[in-house]
Amino acid sequence: MSNRKDLTGQKFGRLTVIRFSHMSEKSESYWICECDCGNKEVRPIKGKYLKNGGTKSCGCLSLENTINLIEKSRNTGKRGIRMSNNEYPYKEKLKNVWGSMKERCYNPNSNSYKWYGEKGVKIYSEWLDRKLGFFNFYNWAINNGYKEGLTIDRVDYDGNYEPSNCEWVTPIIQSNNTCRNIKINIRNKTQTLAEWAREYNLPYRLVLNRYNHGVIGKDLIEPLLDIESKKGIEVNGIIHTGKEWAEIIGIDFKSFKKKYDNGIRGLELTTKLHNDSIVTELKGELLTLHQISEIYNININTLRNRFKIGLRGEDLIQPLQYHVITTTF
């Protein structure tokens, strides 16, 4: 929390933040608020939704909208409430999301039921209300970041479809999140990535990034790198601490730490974030390609190309050898 802006005491719409709640697996902050309507302790709300205006009340605004809509629809003689496409953009798209969500949770004939309903995943009761269920879901979606092309995703893969556990993400992110279902064996114990992250108090996204970078075994759950850490980090047979590597490469420790913590290893770890300056050994010294270029007066692009094709050490700075090849036809 120390690295997060404290929202305590700030007011957003009808909500006043009273205290910090928790950090999610994705390193996003949640806050407890009280509402002007008298609700003294609203469920945890994601900080970004408070700041961008996505969530403005404890739900009382939606209730007022519902009452107004019911009043408008009272004389239609039809059950439920009418929602016109003009007044409610994305209505049809969100109705498809809502319907699919109910199918996979409550219809045993659905192909997805075994991953949801069979595992006990349920839907928030106010989203299932016979008359107002879709209207409540629609209001939550619009007020919490829905845009065309996004899909609904559960923060806790084992949790229910409910306001405190759902968010809107791109299909790519949701696809990546299925990695939570992948079982990883470490030290003779098998758990999902999310479970390992929780056990070792690591952000889920960080563990996922390590996994996507090919990190396996106990390295997946190693502690975050600290500037005072004496842990030896090996790159191309050379070992230094993280602080020493940052100094050698010529980047700040924070940038090096970010790459290391996310699972980047080997020579890629010694590549500068902005200028592709690669560190290599030459005559017993660790030098960047830019330093070699300046010392030996060799074009930097030439050095990059030589490094790319596998030349190392003094081969990087030797004149290129040209051979005449005679071909007989």
Task: Give a short synopsis of this structure.
This protein has 329 residues and is an alpha+beta fold.
Blueprint (SSEs and pairs):
Blueprint: E1 11-12, E2 15-23, E3 29-35, E4 42-46, H1 47-51, H2 60-73, H3 91-106, H4 133-143, E5 151-154, E6 166-169, H5 171-177, E7 183-186, E8 189-192, H6 193-199, H7 204-212, E9 233-235, E10 238-240, H8 242-249, H9 253-261, E11 279-282, E12 285-288, H10 289-296, H11 300-308
Antiparallel strand pairs: 1-2, 2-3, 3-4, 5-6, 7-8, 9-10, 11-12
Helix pairs in contact: 3-4, 8-9
Give a verbal description of the structure:
- This protein is an alpha+beta fold and 329 residues long.
- Among the domains are: 182-214, no CATH class; 223-270, no CATH class; 275-329, no CATH class.
- It is built from eleven helices and twelve strands.
- The protein has helices spanning 47-51, 60-73, 91-106, 133-143, 171-177, 193-199, 204-212, 242-249, 253-261, 289-296, 300-308, and strands at 11-12, 15-23, 29-35, 42-46, 151-154, 166-169, 183-186, 189-192, 233-235, 238-240, 279-282, 285-288.
- Strands 1-2-3-4 form a four-stranded antiparallel β-sheet.
- Helix 3 packs across helix 4.
- The radius of gyration is 28 Å and the shape is elongated.
- It starts with 10 loop residues before the first strand and ends in a 21-residue tail after the last helix.
- The model is unreliable at 320-329 (pLDDT under 50).
Count of alpha and pi helical runs: 11
Label the structural class: alpha+beta
Report the uncertain regions.
Answer: 320-329
End-to-end Cα distance, whole Å, is 74 Å
Q: Give the helices and strands as they follow along the chain.
A: EEEEHHHHEEHEEHHEEHHEEHH
For the biggest β-sheet, the strand order reads 1-2-3-4
Report the strand count.
12
Q: Give the DSSP E fraction (strand runs of 2 or more residues).
A: 15-25%
Shape: elongated
Report the mean per-residue pLDDT as an integer.
Answer: 79
Main beta-sheet strand count, sense and barrel state: 4 strands, antiparallel
Helix content: 25-40%
Radius of gyration: 28 Å
